[in-house]
Design brief:
alpha+beta
Length: 337
Amino acid sequence: MAATVQTAPPANGYTNDTSRATEEYKALAANLPPPPSGDITTPVLFAQHFDKGTTGYMFIKNPPPAGVPYTNIRGEPSLVTVEDLRGKEASVTLDRDSLQILRGLTQVPRNPEVNWDSNSSIETTFYPAVESAVKAAIPGTHTVHIFRHGIRHSKNWPVPYNPPAMIAHLDQTGPAVINRVLRHMGPVDGPRLLQGRYRIVHFWTPLNGPVYTCPVAVASSATVADEDVRIFVSHLGGVGGLGMPLGRPVAKPDPAEQYREDFGAPRYADGQRWFYLSGITQDEALLIQIFDSKSLLKGSEVKGGRAVHSAFRDPRTPPGAPDRWSIEVSCFVFSDE
């Protein structure tokens, strides 16, 4: 009979199911080799072609109208060579690739300091450390503001988290980023902050241990042409139909309000370079840049300013490997440039 794992109560006085996920990871990984590493050629899903006049859409966290599917987007595989950045972490940059790797994040709290099942715990305990890490990593930054986070788990346990996003995408387009800034930063600070350099950067990190399952691949923005990123629509918040309005600028957005925003759906094309970091650990993070306003300036050294990305299945993953459990924190990053 298997021994029962005993865990001491966290020092902060609460217990949570995420401790069980961490213990499960340790038990499974103990008898496995390290996570797969090295370059790998494997299928990555991309949205199908749409005829002119038809736009891809999806409903997120709100139901579509009766009789309308939640999405008309279908993933089609393309064989992609994904290069491993392990051992050459400094070879990618935000300005060229819209990707940066952070290491040695020992000051960013984890379980049990953070209760990952509690938004309040994440916002009060985890957010400040993420803001500090992002600000330190991006020179010239005067303000980092987190406007959302999402937890993903490939086994939908211990709570019904979203699964890994297994199709290439770009969370927001440039106009959607402007609208997000106005929406979350308000009608006074929003316009002022948009006068400088503004970005959205995701802070992505695993929560239970080195990633075995469904790692994240990111395409260097310098290698993805604008014409290969199509504009689709995501319907967010409340209950609404296909014609719901763009989110209006408000100081405190109402989660129940109906709104929509544009997002990017890339095509795969020759010449694109895709990267991942094998066995990314809890003291490491990916900075995935969704938009950088400086990329719009003529002659800018910022190449593209937006990183399309996707989770992918690595055929080398050993049977019985632990499921991926990760968090993505979306940050506004403002500077005076």
